[in-house]
Amino acid sequence: MTDTSRTMRALVLHGKEDLRFERRDVLRPGPGEVRVEIGSVGVCGSDKHFYLEGRASSDIVSEPLVLGHEFGGRIVEVGPGGDEARVGQRVSVEPLMADPLSPQARRGSYNLDPGQRFFGVPGTDGALQQYLNVPAENAFDIPDSMSDDAAAMVETISVSLNGVRKAGVSAGSRILITGGGPIGLFAAQLAFLQGASRVVLVEPQSERRAKAASFGCEVSADLASVDELFDAVIECTGVGVVRHDSCLKVAPGGRAIFIGVGAQDASIPMPAIIEREVSVQGVMRYAFTWPTVIDAVATGRIDADSLVSRTLPFDRAIEAWTVPLTTEVKTMIHVNR
């Protein structure tokens, strides 16, 4: 139902390099939903692909779309029959909405449900608007000590956590991470939390290498200069040659974990994979991560806020795509402040 007394601003992608501010009606939350006043929204690499190419991985923009899948905010209204006590609560929102009765969800892998909906990808508008109705169960309470930016980055950290879990990181693990963007930097922190004895991070950008070093990583600007084998490689760039060559750095019986998507087709060195019995694993978003990540951030075991390299008010949000920063780690858009 539309709240006829209110409209809001939304930033809408109409096609490649075509972002426009528009006014939209505010919708009342339905049963099982809450209305969230959006706080911070993180700009992800997939958002940039949607803007520049009209697609990200297999998702193609075919009609106007509100981007934004990394977000949090404050609950300002609950749907019929909802818990009124939640009004005013600050939350971090999980953007993945799966069918709980799908075979994948029933076996605990709801992130693999082929019919899932996801805020900010084609088919479901995201958070670059002042208000958004979300399933109440997807809005996770956060403490007031946690910043709006960190609340939004729970999504990013969740991707990294899924990758670190699939890498089988445990006490004494030696881990190689390729790519020092937010996913790689969070994966490095999480790997140490899981007991890794060494984390080597490869990243050409000096500012990102410095950030990785501050977390305890050994750093390198070039994968070719890394002359050893690791228990697992977590590949976060999606760059074809990096994906290929990173497989050559996996020790016998180790794991190659692919988070970065990149091109539609890619090659990997099959002799090295076969002869070393390397397990190759993709990472599709996450499942059952929000409480764990919120606790890790709230207790200071994960540093999220220092990764923010630029903040933009909503009025200047388009600059996140049109004025790129060469030293960027993470851009956050502040929607309602």
Task: Describe this protein's structure.
With 337 residues, the chain is of the alpha/beta class. Helix content is 24%, strand content 32%. The chain has nine helices and 20 strands. Helix 3 packs across helix 4 and helix 3 packs across helix 8. The radius of gyration is 20 Å and the shape is globular. It starts with a strand and ends with a strand.
- Quaternary state reads single chain
Give the number of DSSP strands: 20
- Uncertain spans, ≥5 residues at pLDDT below 50? none
Cα Rg: 20 Å
The helix tally amounts to 9
Terminal-residue CA separation: 26 Å
Mean pLDDT: 96
How much of the sequence lies in strands comes to: 25-35%
| Overall spatial form | globular
Main sheet characteristics: 7 strands, mixed
Quickly give the structural class: alpha/beta
Write the SSE topology.
Elements: E1 2-15, E2 18-27, E3 33-42, H1 45-53, E4 55-56, E5 59-60, E6 65-66, E7 70-78, E8 90-93, E9 96-97, H2 103-106, E10 117-118, E11 131-135, E12 139-141, H3 148-166, E13 174-178, H4 182-193, E14 198-202, H5 206-214, E15 218-220, E16 230-235, H6 240-247, E17 250-258, H7 270-275, E18 279-282, H8 290-298, E19 308-313, H9 319-322, E20 330-334
Parallel strand pairs: 13-14, 13-16, 14-15, 16-17, 17-18, 19-20
Antiparallel strand pairs: 1-2, 1-6, 3-7, 3-11, 3-20, 4-5, 7-8, 8-12, 9-10
